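Posted in: Protein Modeling Q&A

I'm a second-year student putting together a small comparison for a lab meeting, and my supervisor asked me to include a predicted structure for 4-hydroxy-3-methylbut-2-en-1-yl diphosphate synthase (flavodoxin). I've never done this before, so apologies if this is the wrong subforum. The sequence is pasted below exactly as I got it from our records. If anyone can share the structure token output, I'd also love a short note on what stands out.
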Amino acid sequence: MQTCLPIESAFPKAHHSLQSRVVWGSRVVTVGGDAPVRVQSMTNTDTVDAIGTAIQVKELALAGSEMVRITVNTPEAAAAVPYVREQLDRMGIDVPLIGDFHYNGHRLLTDYPACAQALSKYRINPGNVGKGNKRDTQFGQMIEAALRWNKVVRIGVNWGSLDQELLASLMDENSARSAPWDARQVMYEALITSAIDSAQRAEDMGMRRDQIILSCKVSGVQDLISVYRELAKRTDHALHLGLTEAGMGTKGTVASATALSILLQEGIGDTIRVSLTPQPGEARTQEVVIASEILQALGLRTFVPSVTACPGCGRTTSTTFQELAKQIDDFLRAQMPVWREQYPGVEGLRVAVMGCIVNGPGESKHADIGISLPGSGEAPAAPVFIDGEKRLTLRGDNIAQEFQVIVENYIEKRFGAHAVAQAS
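Accepted answer (user: helix_wrangler)
Welcome! Here is the predicted structure, written out as tokens:
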């Protein structure tokens, strides 16, 4: 037998960046450095509706969003921000709020100091803060507000609103090259230059480097990978990742998961957002679920217990395993806002719901708790495995309900207060 080295385990590379602190009251969300990759989201409510916006922020926060961005685009929206914050504080939701500013952010932050104070972070798009001399003045006013209130900023460049003067200048430089770059490469350079130059202007005004987060958002997977690989080489600022306008449903989910996973595996990215277009009737929280699942699938973080489920094939006789897997998964997710406090460590639980004898027992043994349901031709029995050992067999018409009770009892026994006390 040929002697060889053991196969190296795959794991995302460590990311090396400055650490920012996004703060509200006693709540501190660290971004970058040795902090975990953070999950962000954004409301789609009219911020003027302070109650509706606060309710959606709460939903996003309970789903796992660690920072929530809200639109601040009008004087009325700016005036409503303190009331959004007040409603959240009353509900015990201390998630930091990020103000999304375009075009008139300099005026809103100056004219509405209560808004500037209620936000924990400002998103500034250098492509639309003004033109010519106005750009420097208006960008400077936003930085001055951040300095006055000690807020973090994200300088977020977007290829849909790229600084056209900068792009034109770089195109002129490119045309003078003996071997001109492709137009797409010039656009990449414009995105990165805009972000880094804007960060330098903010630092020249007195901002610390660790108060600045950068992003260069595009809507193409390969474009995003190309831009962020180069951006990470040129700066040690914390980086916010996300495809802009990722799309709806499967398309948006797959595109976001593909691009973000490749970059995160390479150690690039400190906070992420999945920018999905919600399908009719779909909850806004879906983008938080997907972002969390990306990080959990990569082994970077653990948010909810994982449920391994059989996909189904000709060996399975019904959809019982599918229904049970969904029931258990929905139950675990619904309980997590409470369980995070009540059962520390429960997010690491592994549950298996399998549909026949081929892989069922093996997968169930690998899980903390698992069930192998009867498939085609199998005896009408469902063995339950706990901590790798077969403990009992369920039969009859109430297998799903009985298994859920077993899962609940297992969680209480393993993660409950008495279990923690015994372990200590």
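A couple of things worth pointing out for your meeting: Residues 18 and 195 are 16 Å apart (CA to CA). The chain has two domains: 20-298, 306-423.
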